[in-house]
Design brief:
The structure is a single chain. This protein is α+β, with helices and mostly antiparallel strands. It has 2 domains: 90 residues, Phosphorylase Kinase, domain 1 (2-Layer Sandwich); 233 residues, Alpha-Beta Complex (Aminoglycoside 3'-phosphotransferase, Chain: A, domain 2). The protein is 43% helix and 13% strand. The chain is built from 13 helices and 11 strands. Strands 1-2-3-5-4 form a 5-stranded antiparallel β-sheet, with helices on both faces. The protein has a two-stranded antiparallel ribbon with strand order 6-7. Strands 8-11 form a two-stranded antiparallel ribbon. A hairpin with a 2-residue loop joins strand 2 and strand 3. The longest helix has 28 residues. The radius of gyration is 21 Å and the shape is globular.
Length: 338
């Protein structure tokens, strides 16, 4: 076990819950501090999640997991947890992530329709403020503003050779402040924040909504309904066929007839741009700070997603700022940078 660099409490945790003699193998990590290990004991199989505090919140994962499961969503069953240590033993949903399933011949449109239906189901009602003792906070404008500033914190210096000055930051913040109110349409719904292909599993042996396995929801908040649909369709790590976007939006809104279509469209565009700007900063930060250069290859796609959203009339102030300060002529694709 020492060769796996397991957390100190992992072995006694597994032993306490009947998995002491299990074989353990690492699973691929993600952009967070969390780590995962596949645990096998004869015919039994599970996943050990290491979500170390204070960087990760295991208790939030357990609480949101129970909330989603109660609504018929396929999330990993929690067999055991020690939230103080950040350890949880989870149901193993297998290896059929959306990307692998599509590469293996699954109908891409069917998978994305199913994932859209999950969101419409979850958004039929407002999100509660507390789940299992865990407070589900609001995805507020202050946080959105901090997140879009990441493009100045990390991406700007790579393009300009120095830090963004206070005047530039003020003009950038002002451009976004003009559009934040438009993002707030239907802003009392569940926002999972990372509802996209790397965190979705295809489970065709199950029926209905349960065919979509959902992972990575521990940071969930209450916020605009459009956010997770943007996350799903405007995936920073893979190209979703352009024709699917309007079809999936129409499908979602047909299932949520109380939502105002025009307000939703504006919210979708603002949140899509906000998400893209954040990711442009995050992917460079993962490279420079965390030594994870693998995300750099996605940067051209993220710029394309940002430009797509900036074309919406609601984003005119932000589009003008990018045209003046970060036009296509100064952007890099970072090929070979790592």
């Amino acid at each position: 076990m020492a060769d796996l660099n397991l957390p100190a409490g992992a072995k006694p945790f597994l032993e306490a819950h009947g998995w002491g003699g299990a074989e353990i193998a690492p699973l691929a990590g993600d952009a967070s501090f969390r780590r995962y290990f596949r645990v096998r004991d004869g015919d039994r199989r599970a996943v050990l999640m290491d979500a170390p505090p204070p960087n990760e919140n295991c208790a939030a994962f357990v609480a949101i997991d129970a909330y989603l499961a109660a609504r018929g969503i396929s999330v990993p069953q929690v067999f055991a947890s020690d939230t103080a240590q950040g350890l949880a033993l989870l149901e193993d949903l297998g290896d059929s992530m959306f990307v692998r399933a599509i590469d293996g011949g699954a109908d891409e449109a069917e998978l994305y329709r199913a994932a859209t239906d999950v969101l419409a189901h979850l958004h039929a009602d407002p999100m509660v403020e507390t789940v299992g003792g865990h407070a589900v906070g609001p995805y507020a404008e202050e946080r959105m503003a901090r997140e879009v500033a990441l493009v100045l914190d990390w991406h700007w210096p790579e393009l300009k050779g120095g830090a963004a000055d206070d005047a530039l930051r003020a003009s950038y913040a002002a451009a976004w402040a003009a559009v934040w109110p438009l993002a707030r349409a239907h802003d009392d719904r569940l926002v999972q924040l990372d509802y996209h292909s790397p965190n979705l599993m295809w489970l065709p042996e199950r029926g209905g909504l349960a065919r979509v396995g959902v992972l990575d929801f521990q940071d969930a908040m209450r916020g605009p309904a459009a956010y997770d649909l943007v996350s799903l369709i405007q995936d920073p790590r893979r190209d979703v066929p352009p024709a699917l976007e309007p079809a999936l939006i129409d499908r979602y809104l047909a299932a949520c007839p109380a939502f105002d279509r025009e307000a939703f469209a504006a919210s979708y565009a603002v949140l899509g741009a906000q998400r893209a700007a954040r990711i442009l900063g995050v992917f460079v930060r993962l490279w420079r700070r965390d030594g994870k250069p693998g995300y750099l290859k996605h940067i051209p796609r993220v710029w394309s997603l940002l430009d797509r959203n900036l074309a919406h009339p609601a984003l005119a102030p932000v589009a003008q700022w990018f045209d003046a300060n970060l036009p296509p002529s100064v952007r890099r694709d970072f090929t070979g940078a790592a």
